[in-house]
Amino acid sequence: MPPATKDKKGAVGPLKYAPGTARTLVVTVVDPARKKAGVSGVTVEVLGLSIKTTGADGKATFKDLPVAGEGESAKEWILRVRKAGYGPPPPDGLPWREWQVERKPIPTSEPVCAVEVELTTPGTIDITVRVVTGKDPKKGIAKAAVEVWSLRGGREPNTAADGTVRWKGVSLLRKDGTAVTELAIKVNKEGWGFYSAEQWVEGEVMEVVPVPPGATAIERTITLHERDEAKAAKIDQLRASQPQLAGLDHRSPLEGPSEANALGRDETDITTASFAPKVFVCGGPPVLIELKGLDLKWGEGYIPAKWRVEAHATNAGAPTPTLQPGGNHCRVPTTCPGVFTVWAKVGEGERAINLAFVKVTITTSAAKTAPHNFRQGNTGGPGVTCDTGDFDVPNTPWLVTWSVSVSGGRTRDQDKVRVVPIQNGIHNDPVATYSAKNGVVGTHREFVKSLPVLDTGMKSTPYCVGQYMFAAGTSPAKLEADMEMELTGSTRHFRLLDAPNVTFFKKHHHTGASLGGGTIRGPMRFRAAVAAFSTDWPGMAVVLGVLTWGVEFRFDVAESWTGSWTLTNAGSTVTTDSAFTPLDPPQDAAAAGFRLTGLRFNDGNARDFDRRCTPPCPQDAP
Questions:
Q1: Number of helices (H) and strands (E), helices first, in the chain?
Q2: Of 117, 238, 331, 538, which sees the most CB atoms within 10 A?
Q3: Mean pLDDT across the stretch 451-465?
């Protein structure tokens, strides 16, 4: 049996080689940082053969190591050398790391083989911090708390009478086994602070000090400034905003920040010009409150503001929103109707801004289709038009009415909220099939460049909204599309109608065949919504409820046209949801899937009747 491998605790396993000509290996572990002094307590392993620990002289001696056996010769030994807190000297320019040393090969040709291995620690350092006053840099500040980060456990004593604190022999070894390359020194004393943008701010001061390779001592002087009432930090302004809807390009948000001051906190404040609340609709994204007029950056971070919110007496016990602070800004959820004051404090300076959140709720809604007065005719142009009816109440093919209640805030706040319809075309696929000519049947399809498209002509509103809007019970029955309804009050009633149509050329542009004797078939679908926006921030619309409706065109086109409208119905239908489905909670228009700018069905550029031909028109050829 082969002899066993021995360590200081006993056998750890059988030898891999049978006895042969034995050799002796002497391993010396030294620390170059201590002038090649031996390192004791180092575990030295001859891989697979034996394990020993270095003594006080840094040596580990292995005797009777085999060099041959079982028909082969051992050409080398492999060493592993390790000790906690030690590692090899790092190459130039690289940081030190705790790591085991592995060496191979070690020749076995001599009776006694000597090997030297270098291990070292990251070392220790003496730290001296002196805290002085800004008015007199020669005068130290006593009892200032000093903390040194980056070291194991950290250290937090207080300065002596001369403002100095010292540490001796601080290890530069981190818990993760790497060397400390910089020190983060934090100093704090109540009533003391620093200057930012010429303003004094009470708070801790932190400086990052690099530790050069081989350094044995670090000295640092840190300056604190005493409280100065004349230079207390102030915030010039607070600004409230919401994100603007993507693609909303023809109307910018209101310009300029919201002014605010720190005077007074009772209900009468909101009647003043500077304290008039900024009005937002409940259900929109959180309102962003930003500090303006003070550069809050210092070093690589921010001086955090302290935020709080108060409800006004006008709220009558309504819930208060939970702030989402973020240093020099905070976000206020729009979930709580009412009037609120948001306060921001930095140092001794404090400013406030008032916000009013107005809630709009759909209380009733009903949609219906009228008798199908589908009409087909020739108005003298080159096209054939198929219409679903007309834009008057007796003959409109689709009509929806609804009422809303408005709550939260004061009457003047509610009057800033507009309730409007939004309608998108989501599907447009009517196809005209022409009579055959020379045996070739051709088609045209109404081509819309992109879906969804906005079905509207109301450009006088902050953004384009529904096509026709009425106040219930008003006269005349028909209003112009560009007339903007600004109904106010806690209860509001609305009516929206639409009468879609399609138009195709009388003759196919490629075959020359007449549409007479052909057909017009296909669906047109819409998605409508009740939305609300605030005139204080018209860049954000909040959708309260949604419904879908549509038309299925089924027209048989006569051989000739008389030039006047002719009532016809070849199975065309209008379908609709019975009412708006409320969104709970409401969503901004983009999140609800509505597009508020771009193409319009009633814009000349929205449709191109020369495209989508079968067989292809010349302009469709590749």
A1: 1, 47
A2: 238
A3: 53
